[in-house]
Pilus assembly protein PilP (Chitinibacter fontanus), 174 residues
Amino acid sequence: MKRWILLSLTSLALTGCLSEKNSDLKAWMNEQSEGLRGRVEPLPEVKPYQPFTYDAFVLPDPFRPSKMELAKKAGGSGIAPNTNRVKEVLENYDLEKLRMVGTLQQGKIIQALVKAPDGNLYRVKVGSYMGQDFGMVTSVSETEITLKEIVEDSGGDWVERTTTLSLDDAEQKK
């Protein structure tokens, strides 16, 4: 009797192993992969290396102040930045990154308060320099600072341009 029970349990266990689990999934996978064939695209053709010869030794060095010296000697437009003066703190920043946040007035003299990207406030008056284009403050009003900048044009000559820095809109609403 024990053999009979053992034999029936063994056959039952083997029947469970023989039944195919997830047969519908395997059939679907076979159906979907029928038309697929593996194909690897060929590698692109490698172009031979052609070296580039740098031949700009005859061009002026953009990192030397020779253009400024030539402008002073030749007299071209007569405009050239003063490179001998000591730079002010606000000349280290782009003019676009500086914000006018207010004004101070003592008598008839108006000074502007300018906030730099480092978070510090600086007083600016007529004759002060700010921005990276040799910008000198020509006037200060309650709403804007007017600067005269000296920039290099496409021909290599120095030209003057007038720029204004307006009071920050967020500060006007306060």
